[in-house]
Amino acid sequence: MPPLSRRALLGAAGLGFAPAAVAQGDWPGGGPVALTIPYGPGVGTDILGRVVTQSLAERTGGTFVMDHKPGGATTVAARHVARARPDGTTLLMGAVGTFTLAPFAFRNLGYDPLRDFEHITQIAETILVLVANPRWDSLEAAIAGARRRPGELSFATWGVGSSSHLLLVDMMARAGIELIHVPHNSTPPALTDTVAGRTDMMFSPLATAKPHIESGRLRALAMIRDTRASVLPAVPTVDEAGLPGLRTSSWLSLQAPAGTPQPILASIEEIVSRAFQAETNRALLDGLGMASVTFGAAALRARIIEELPRHRELMERAGIQPE
Q1: Which of 18, 197, 226, 294 has an alpha carbon within 20 to 30 A of 136's alpha carbon?
Q2: Residue 1: its pLDDT value, please?
Q3: What is the rounded CA–CA span in Å between residue 63 and residue 187?
């Protein structure tokens, strides 16, 4: 996720809500509510966390704070929330890895991705773009180059078992090519190596890659989504570029411990969904290279159920064994 910016923080504050609809004393416990964030402070997830906490505070009159608990590829925060009292005072900013990747990466995960949580709503999805050395002017040309030199071209990812790695595994199978996997511990060093030419291509969050695409240091070959992105309308979708069906996304969501009362969950879903559909925050997501999602508990739960077997198969194909 990109660093926080003053402009983004100001945008996140402009939620446009009416005065509080629910008195603070009406929220169970009457005390502060913690939004547990599985990353360290000062990254892009804080911008989204601020939208969540401020929108809930404005509508309920309660106190909502961000509680950062990084570690274990988001599983430290997830375990904390899964074990918390289901009284509405502990929430989780979940991620795709928390619920559909970690179950196949850890032998002792410490939580069940479906049974131990109330899945409230998706909040946003990172737009991923396939970027490569500018010598290739299309995905078709890059694939042709890889076929001419099997096992010689390299592909950077932000880690073994990450969504970028699974996309690589899926892309190689669909295209019939073999690339050298060069894993990094995060997106910035992977992108740095690709810009410098030490690796040939990678899947990158749009916001992170956009300056390098616009400067010509990298070429955007395809967007990993159903429709083109308004910020780079000339870049085709992966379906248009010749690899239909290639999908793995990086989404964020809201969860609560299993057993949290339904009226609380319904209120959070309604307030947060409205917040992210407000014009100010739609513009905020555009600036972060993120896309809007289908809101609501049913859509989120269905997405997790759909992605679990697909990611299990890709993990097995990649030869990743639970640790």
Answers
A1: 226
A2: 43
A3: 33
